Amino acid sequence: MPLDIAIEDEGWAVLPNLEMIAEQAAAAALPQGEQGKIITVLFSNDETMQDLNKEWRGFDKPTNVLSFPAPKDQPMPPGELPLLGDIVLGFGTCAREAEDAGKTLADHTCHLIVHGVLHLLGYDHENDKDAEVMEAAEIKILSTLGIENPYLL
Length: 153
Known about the structure:
There is one protein chain. By secondary structure, the protein is α/β, with parallel strands linked by helices. It is 44% helix and 16% strand. The protein has helices at residues 18-29, 46-57, 91-101, 105-120, 128-144, and strands at residues 3-7, 38-44, 65-69, 83-90. Strands 1-2-4-3 form a four-stranded mixed beta sheet, sandwiched between helices. Helix 3 packs across helix 4 and helix 4 crosses helix 5 (128-144).
């Protein structure tokens, strides 16, 4: 599974195995038929997250993770792998959430990448029913990675 990773905020250096975390989380969340698609992951900061959240969702505040699915009809040059989409994580918010919940930053980051990949696959949590389905998928995927149910903590 191809993963294109960029690290924009130096705060992420507290996780020396960040690329491995991203690769494991994305691979665990992707169904077999989607394994050949490219996902880009940007490890950013709260300022960038606030700008993106305001531009794309209308919320003028930072957030932990945003997902941007690739258009389904996006033409691909011959020989190029298709893009599933982009995931962006904000260091400050992610670090604060992990600390406030008593989770490791590594586990929380893994959870947010799984969450982001599920959004790229079409999952959502706009209503209670969809949220239950998405949370159940997250819990199941995270358990395969040895991470406890994040909704119980």
